[in-house]
Amino acid sequence: EVQLVESGGGLVQPGGSLRLSCEASGFTFSVFVMSWFRQAPEGLEWVSSITEDGTGTYYADSVKGRFTISRDNSKNALYLQLNGLKTEDTAMYYCAKGRTSSFRGQGTQVTVSS
C-alpha cells in the first residue's frame, strides 16, 4: 500500500522559511518522479517535481527561486524548502508519487500570516 506522510508545516510570518518533509513507503521510491502540490481555496496547484535520481528539478513560476525540492532515496524521503514565504503561499501542501496528484498524502498545512 502506497503511503505518503507529510510533515513540517506551520504558521510563519511573511518572509519566513519552512522545510516540509514526506516519508514514503509501500513502493520503490527511488524509481519514481516525486512531486509537491498545494491546495488553496482557488484550487489544486502543482508546485514542484524532482526526477528519480534528484538531478532534475522543476518548479511552478509562482515559487521559482524561493522553493527548493530535494530527495534522499536512502531514506525514502522527499523535501521542500520554502523560503521567502508570501501570504499567497498559504495552502495545504501534499507530496505525490509521480507527476500527478493521484497518489498523495494527507498533507501538511502552511499558513503565512503576520
Describe the structure.
The chain has 114 residues and is mainly β. The strands form two sheets. The protein has a six-stranded mixed sheet, with no helix packed on it. It has a four-stranded antiparallel sheet with strand order 1-3-8-7, with no helix packed on it.
Highlighted features:
mainly beta; six-stranded mixed β-sheet; 114 residues
How would you briefly describe this protein structure?
The protein has 114 residues and is mainly β. It is built from no helices and 10 strands.
Low-confidence stretches: none
Helix content: under 10%
What is the terminal separation in angstroms?
40 Å
**How many strands, which pairing sense, and closed or not: the largest β-sheet?**
6 strands, mixed
- Strand fraction equals over 45%
SSE map:
Layout (H helix, E strand, L loop, with lengths): L2 E5 L2 E3 L5 E8 L8 E7 L2 E8 L6 E3 L7 E6 L4 E6 L8 E7 L10 E5 L2
Parallel strand pairs: 2-10
Antiparallel strand pairs: 1-3, 3-8, 4-5, 4-9, 5-6, 7-8, 9-10
